[in-house]
Design goal:
Elements: H1 3-13, H2 16-55, E1 58-65, E2 68-72, E3 78-82, E4 88-90, H3 96-103, E5 109-123, E6 128-136, H4 138-144, H5 147-150, E7 151-154, H6 156-160, E8 165-169, H7 170-176, E9 183-188, E10 191-201, H8 206-209, E11 212-216, H9 217-224, E12 232-237, H10 243-254, E13 256-260, H11 261-264, H12 266-304, H13 306-314, H14 319-352, E14 356-360, E15 364-367, H15 374-401, H16 404-409
Parallel strand pairs: 6-11, 8-10
Antiparallel strand pairs: 1-4, 1-12, 1-13, 2-3, 5-6, 5-9, 5-12, 7-10, 8-11, 9-10, 14-15
Helix pairs in contact: 1-14, 2-12, 2-14, 2-15, 12-15, 14-15
């Protein structure tokens, strides 16, 4: 153990209560930072995982219509250039199979599925409700979504064997009081058709479960009077994080609008990001209190240990040695507080993730959804290190400026 560290420990034990107060604030600051980020990120990741499992990583939608402008060359010849401004789109995908074949040429594409979508009115003997019907080839769609794992009643096999079958969202089924094998009516443009509930799915996101049902693509074409085309192509990727650059490349090749999931859900992702920042700022107050307490404690030690500092300086200790002694005190408390805070945060996160709590708002979960991310622990400890060490530097430098002669004469500042 170095002499500076030994002296720092001596000074540290002289102010046990004050140091314990600083230590407790550091523990709370680090721990609560980890807990709030773990809960906020947990719901965010659940939301992202559900959306990727429901709506895919990308969607190929409207075809881009070439917008050409004629220009004349100085020699009198005319030529055309493509305008990037004012790009026009033709709604839907006119040749979905050809687009799917082109999409599968991209290395990151896992699977693709054509979807025909429309707004409809559902009716049962109990009530009516608005919904969106999705026409899909179920064997294709389960490769680009988690629909097969989201079934909570009935089965996909029952859907395959039922020509007029439908897979209905859990909230829709509850609103219309439908169970598997019950019949309901889809109303569209004055035409009504009866369908049987072959299965009920639940994603956990209420906005999806209350508005969506699936029927076979062929049946959807008959219902919507659209013998060809699709509303969009849903795509799943091996690496969803590369969706944005992949979408740009794919749009150029396919001449269709391609929307990555981060752009599609930017509103909700922005909400989660704001919540993370807000909660992080709030719990950082504990770390700020810890830094102020450390500043006050070290300042008091400087005042009480002026004679000791004079002795050290007269023995040959330089100013930087005195600075290190006081910074060592802050570092010791900070190290202990950070370790205890990390353990405290991990423990509270573990307990929160196991406390039964029915969440049924925009999400549906049986417990609080938490996540364990090394980044949260590094951010919590990093914040504590910066704030506490900066606050400790002022009294440490003040102690280093004290001169033995001034201390003896009683004029030290």
């Amino acid at each position: 153990m170095s002499p500076n560290l030994r002296i720092a420990l001596r000074f540290l034990t002289a102010k046990k209560r004050a140091m314990l107060m600083s230590l407790s604030c550091i523990v709370l600051g680090v721990g609560l930072f980890i807990v709030t980020q773990a809960t906020t990120s947990g719901f965010e990741k659940f939301f992202i995982r559900t959306l990727l499992g429901t709506d895919g990583a990308m969607r190929v939608e409207d075809r881009i219509q070439d917008t050409m402008r004629s220009m004349s060359a100085p020699g009198g010849s005319d030529f055309q250039i493509r305008q990037k401004e004012g790009v026009k789109y033709i709604e839907g995908v006119e040749e979905p199979q050809r687009v799917i074949e082109a999409v599968r040429a991209f290395a990151n594409v896992r699977a693709a599925s054509a979807v025909l979508r429309a707004n409809v009115m559902l009716s049962s003997s109990f009530k009516n409700t608005d919904a969106q019907v999705f026409g899909v080839r179920v064997d294709d769609h389960i490769q680009v979504s988690d629909l097969g794992r989201q079934i909570v009643a009935g089965s996909l096999e029952n859907f395959r064997l039922t020509p007029s079958g439908a897979i209905v969202g859990r909230v829709i089924a509850d609103q219309l009081q439908l169970a598997v094998d019950d019949w309901f009516v889809i109303n569209l443009r004055g035409e009504s058709r009866r369908y049987r509930v072959a299965a009920i799915f639940e994603t956990g996101v209420r906005d999806i479960d209350k508005a969506r049902l699936y029927i076979d693509l062929g049946e959807a074409r008959s219902l919507l009077k659209r013998p060809t085309g699709a509303t969009f192509i849903q795509i799943s990727l091996f690496d969803p994080e590369k969706a944005t650059p992949e979408a740009a490349r794919m749009s150029e090749v396919l001449q269709h609008s391609v929307t990555p999931w981060r752009k599609r859900e930017y509103v909700w992702l922005g909400v989660f990001r704001a919540l993370q920042i807000s909660s992080g700022i709030t719990v950082t107050v504990f770390t700020l209190i810890a830094s102020l307490a450390m500043f006050n404690t070290l300042a008091m030690i400087v005042l009480e240990k002026t004679k000791d500092i004079a002795i050290l300086r007269s023995m040959g200790y330089e100013r930087r040695d005195v600075t290190r002694i006081f910074l060592w005190q802050a570092a010791i408390v900070l190290a202990i507080g950070s370790i205890a805070g990390v353990l405290f945060g991990a423990g509270v996160t573990w307990m929160i993730g196991r406390v039964p709590m029915q969440v049924n708002t925009i999400f549906k979960a049986e417990t609080f959804i938490v996540t364990y991310d090394v980044k949260h622990y590094l951010q919590a400890v990093g914040t504590a290190v910066v704030m506490v060490m900066v606050a400790s530097l002022i009294p440490a430098r003040r102690a280093a400026r004290l001169e033995p002669g001034d201390i003896v004469r009683g004029i030290a500042q």
